[in-house]
Amino acid sequence: MARPILSAFADEYKTDFDGQLEGLNSFGIDFIELRFVNGTNVAALTDEEVKTVKNKLSAKNIRVSAIGSPLGKINTADDMDAEMAKAERVFKIANELEAKNIRMFSFYLDEKKSKEENKSIVFSSLERMVKLASKYGVTLCHENEAKIYGESPKACREILDYFGGEMKCVFDMGNFMLENFKPYPDAYELLKEYIEYFHIKDSLSAGAIVPPGCGEGQIAELIDAHSAYANNDFFITLEPHLQTFSGLNSLVGKGFDNPYKYETPELAFTDAVNKIKAIMKA
Question: In 210-229, which positions are buried (b, 16+ CB within 10 angstroms) versus exposed (e)?
Fold first, then answer.
């Protein structure tokens, strides 16, 4: 039986990278999905900053489960050559940090283009990215998200089938639920053969992101099902996206008063860690 391994987007705990690593150590989490370092996106780190990150990770005995890149989070009308240059930079950083998996997306669709034209741009651009990833020995892992081509389970399956295993799936149950797609068994059964790892984010379809196990994301069922299905241990990466009193959750964009609000990001993240650990022990 495969075992889930906990990783996290520690930038949701602290902006300061030292604080991120100290937090992970205090929670007993040995892996990080690297996204922002001192407020700078991983794709924008300099060579010197990457070396510093590598040394700090080593000093704290934390490894990189994935690069939480922004690749594919642009419009189909945008500059794809520039996006491929960014992809190459991300892949070089991944090699330096000994990270195999690259989280990415499948582009927002230009409303001025036809469905066929958007699809053509999406797939041709993903082809370029997959080819480049192969050169650097990294694996592209597609995350489902609202408004991109791969928003629905069906569209995700279309992309993953097209690449025949060269691209994997980051299964985000919270994102599926926010768009009224049932994570389990519907989305899971459609995508399970391609799942590389999970993003742990729970939500209510009414329009709120909530702590793990408090929503409709069916996190426990998904972990149990994949533990029985998978041949190897797999990461479950905490990306709680919880709301503080000082700000609204920009990801949701729905007029729903979230019952779960926190005084600080640290308190929100700590609650999410405790809740996912409880699910893992159950």
Answer: bbbbbbbbbbbebbbbbeee
Query: How do strand 261-262 and strand 40-41 relate by DSSP bridges?
Result: unpaired
Q: Which residues of the chain have pLDDT under 50?
A: none
- For tokens 């040995």, the residue is 30
DSSP H helical ranges for 60-199 = 80-96, 115-136, 153-163, 173-178, 188-191
Helices marked H in 29-68 — which ranges? Answer: 47-59
List the beta bridge partners of residue 4.
234
pLDDT at residue 103, rounded to an integer: 99
| Residue 254, pLDDT score | 61
The pLDDT of residue 53: 99
- Please give the tally of structural domains in the chain: 1
Domain with 53 in it: what CATH number? 3.20.20.150
What pairing do the DSSP bridges indicate for beta strands 261-262 and 36-37?
Answer: unpaired
Domain that includes residue 133, residue range = 4-281
Q: Please, what is the angle between helix 115-136 and helix 80-96, to 10°?
A: 30
Cβ–Cβ < 8 Å for 168, 159: no
Report whether 62 contacts 96 (CB < 8 A): no
Distances (CA, A) of 26 to 166, 253, 278: 36, 33, 17
With residues binned 3-state (H G I as helix, E B as strand, rest as coil), the percentages for the chain, rounded to 5, are 45, 20, 35
Task: Give the dihedral sign, CA 201/142/107/151.
Answer: negative
pTM of the full predicted structure?
0.96
